[in-house]
Every structure is written in C-alpha cells, then in structure tokens.
Amino acid sequence: MAAETGTPTTLTLKSNDDELFSVAESAAILSVTIRNMVEDGCAGGVIPLDNVDGKTLASVITYMNGISAIPADEEKKKSYRDKFLSDKDFETLADMVLAANYLNMSCLMDAVSAKIAQVMEKKSVGWVRRKFGIENDYTPEEEAAVKEEHKWTFEGVETDDDN
Amino acid sequence: MLQKFDEDVLEQILSHLQVKDLLRFKSVSKKWNSIISTPRFVNLHLNKSMSTPSHHRIIMPYPKSFRAVDFHIMDVQDHLPRPEEAVGTFVGSSGGLICYLDKLTRRICVWNPSLRLSKTLDLNIQGSVSFFWFGRESSDDEYKVVLGIRSVVRKNTDPNLYAIRRITIMPDQDEYRNHIYVIMPFACVSESSTQLEVDHIYFSSSDEGTLFSGLVHWFAGSYRIKSAIGSIYHDAVFTYDLGGKTLGKLSTPVGLSSSTGSIGVIDGCLSAIYRVCGGDCAIYEFWMMKEYGVKESWTKMTSLSFGNCDDGLSSFSRLKLVGATDTGDLILCCAPDCQLLIYNVAEKKSKIVLSNGYGFARMYVETLVFP
User: Fold this and answer.
1) For residue B2, which residues of chain A lie inside 8 Å, CB to CB?
2) Where are the alpha helices (DSSP H) in A2-159?
3) Which CATH architecture has domain A10-120?
C-alpha cells in the first residue's frame, strides 16, 4: 500500500500478551515480516506478532525508531546498535534474537547474535547449559570422551559459579 | 526457562564464536556437537570469520611456536604450538589454513592453527620447486596448492622448463586430489594469442604467490636472447590463471628491480613494494597498478624510509605487505630482522608491534575447517 506523501502512516502492532504499540510505518518496515504484510495489504488494522512478548516488542520498537532516525551512515548505525545492546542482559538478548529472527531483521539479528557470542566467550559448558536451558544428553563416558578430545579448550575458562 | 532456540538461530549465534569456544561447547549436548560439526556450519563460520575483521589474526613464526596477534589491539594474544611438520618454506595462508613446504623431504604440511591440527602430504616430485602458492579460492571454495617445478635435467643453454602442479586439498578426507602435471615451458606461453618473447625465466624471489582476481602473481626475471646484441633482461610479474589454467605476464614499473620487491594487494589493486636504496637508510616505494594489466597505470603511492635516521631501526633488506587494518593502516613485515610494523600512510608513521621473529608475519582467520 502506498503511503501518501507528507502524512506518515502509523501501524499498530500487537504482542502475544496483547499489548498494543503504535509505530511509524517507515520504522516498522525494517522488519521484512512486517513489510511483507504491509505490501500484501493486510496491515490495515492491528498486526498481530504471535512470537514476541510486549517487553521485547517495546525494546525492538525503540530500536526501530532509533536506527531509522539515523541517516545512511553505517558507522553511526553500528555504534547505535552497540550502545543499544550494551546494557542488555543475557535473557533480554535471547528474547531479542528470537524476535529479530521472527521479524526478519537481519542487521539486528546479526548484532544481537554477535553480542550473545561475546557474552559466551570463555564461559564454561555448565554456564551455557543453564543459560540456554539445555539438558545434558551425554552419558558420563561420552561426555568425558568429547572433553578429552578437546582438552586444551578448557584452559582459561571462567569459573562456573557466575550467573 | 528460555524459549527453545531453533537450529537456524543457534547457528547464527555460534557462527560469531572463536574456535576454542566452539570446540569446548561440543560438550554442551549431542545436538550442539552435531550442529558445530556439520559442513554447513563450518562454512557459515568461515564466511563470518573472513568478513569480520575482529576474527582476523596476524601470525608470526618463532622457533617453537607462533605468536598470534590480535588484529585490533595489536598485541600478542596467544602462543600457538608449532607442529613439527610445519617446517621449511611458507607456501601460503588462506581461509584459516596455513601451508608449509619442506623442500628436503618433499612434503607439504597443511595446518589449522585454530584447531591445532595438521596433516602432511608426500609430493613425489622430481626437480626443484621454484614458485608456489596456497589458497582458498572463492570460485569453488577449494583449497589448492600450485607448485612451479623446475626441471633438473637440462643443459646450460636450454631454457628453464617449469611444470605446474595443482593439488586440491580435501578437508576432512585422507585423500588429496592430485591434479595431473601440466608441463608448460614458459617459452611457449602466449599472451593475447601471441607468443611471449622470452627465452629464460628465473624466479629469484622466495615469496609465495599473490592471488588477485583469480590469478596468482609472482615476480620473475626473464631475458630474451638476441643473437647479435646479446640478451635483454627485464623484470616482470608472471601470472597463473586458476580458472583457465593459463600463464601470462604483466609489466612492472620501469627501472625497479624485483629482486628487492614484493607483491601485495592494497585498496583492491595489485601492488608492489620496492627497496630503492640500501645502506644505512633504506627507502621503500609503494606502487599500485591502478588499472589491472595496464602498464602505464603503475603509480607510486608513498614511500617509507628506515634507517639510523629513524628511531634506531636498522635498514631492512625487504619489506612485505601482510595486510591492512579496517582503518586503512598497512601491516608490514620486514626481513631479516622480522619486525611487524603498522604503517599509517597518511601520517607516514610506523610503529613496531613485534620483533625478532623467524620469518614473515601473515594473516589468518579462525576456522573449523579440518586441514
């Protein structure tokens, strides 16, 4: 649908916990998922985003508004992304990466993935299992064998008691 | 409890990690182990590594180990144990793998410093290896070794005959695909369908070839014997087209000797660094071939001087381009002192990062590719 010049179109997004958000169409279409809905003409009323909760969606919209206010300057966009993600904890980043994936926002996806990877650096296997909610499906023998094969990678790992 | 990450999202996250972390996280679960081990992920990770400057390392050889310098902080980050087989002539570093040629045992060693794994191959060659290259080429993502082998059986008056041998390294397999010898005396090399007027070619440089737009480039000297007036010697850049498997020749800037030069790529142009004056104060000139293949487009970009005029640095005999930082500073390495330098082109200032290495420094990236 063609936006009329001079009148910024506003979209209403609905999170999976029924929160409603207004956002300028020009910012919202950073999400390819939303852009496709707009182009298909099914964005007339409320756009339901079934995989994103209100807290995460609020944050994503802050990002959409922030990044779309920056003119085409990749350096500035990058530093905005870095600053935007700098104070986010692991759980928030995890929600964000899933939202970015669902909304098909490749730049945000890449930045959040890199940030999560940065947090995972030097972390223990136990830390990763806890944070990612992974059950250890190795038998003790199998696990010992995998660890033995890559023994040197366990040097200099952070202690396991941090959160 | 976190929402379940599907495999695509997990791959995206893991592709940003360094190899040491990834190998450790194989112990997280069977699923993680299998994701990290798939060729698809290995490829995704390598592409991410190559396009992310913070994943690039500079590696500097020392007798027992290699020092890996972090690209951004320009400081030694890691000491990598050197495999016993990684000896002799450096053939190349590309796509996270490093290749050495041992001319005595006639074996090549392909080594992944991030995985700390290597393997060797017997070459079974006759003759001596005069020029060489190792790399991963984007057209087919295969790792190849190109060796120029000079025939030993010849009379003094015969032209030097070279055979080119291509070897494709097959990651994760014990077999190497050994390409058939392509015997190609340089005297018969054609350039734009006319014969090169060359009788003798000498590869004097011990440098590995430089890949640029699908062709490998080496410095070489050649001369054409003219019966009446003797012979005419000139320097040239010889090329080997990896796709078309053809040989060619490029002109070098007039009046400069390739014996003190080295080839590199700066700002997307084929470039050469020449030493133009020796003695106490060495001066190096940086030349760029602005338009590939056009002799007249060779342009002198900058020059750099070392010597007792400059913070007590000795005069280097050779200077080689290692790479460039994302801010455009050149990373250089000099012989014989083997110092690693960062050179700010605009301000003409250089800074020493490492000294007293045992060979030129090179770039490499982190990868899970099994050698």
Assistant:
1) 91, 94, 131-133
2) 25-28, 32-39, 54-68, 74-86, 90-103, 106-120, 125-132, 140-149
3) 2-Layer Sandwich (3.30)
ipTM at complex level = 0.91
* Interface subset of A 13-72, CB within 8 angstroms of B: none
Q: Where are the domains of chain B?
A: 83-251
Q: Which helix (H) or strand (E) holds B283?
A: strand B281-289
What would the pLDDT profile of A103-122 be if each residue is shown by its tens digit? 999 999 999 999 999 999 99
- Condensed to tens digits (0 to 9), the pLDDT of residues B57-67 reads 899 988 888 99
Asked if A123's CB is within 8 angstroms of B29's CB, the reply is no
Q: Which residues of chain A have pLDDT under 50?
A: 1-4, 162-163
- Closest CA–CA distance from residue A48 to any residue of chain B (Å): 19
Beta carbons of B312 and B296 less than 8 angstroms apart: no
For chain A, the structural domain boundaries read 10-120, 125-154
Shortest CA gap A89–chain B (Å): 13
A160 to chain B, closest Cα gap in Å: 14
Query: Is some CB atom of chain A closer than 8 A to the CB atom of B370?
Result: no
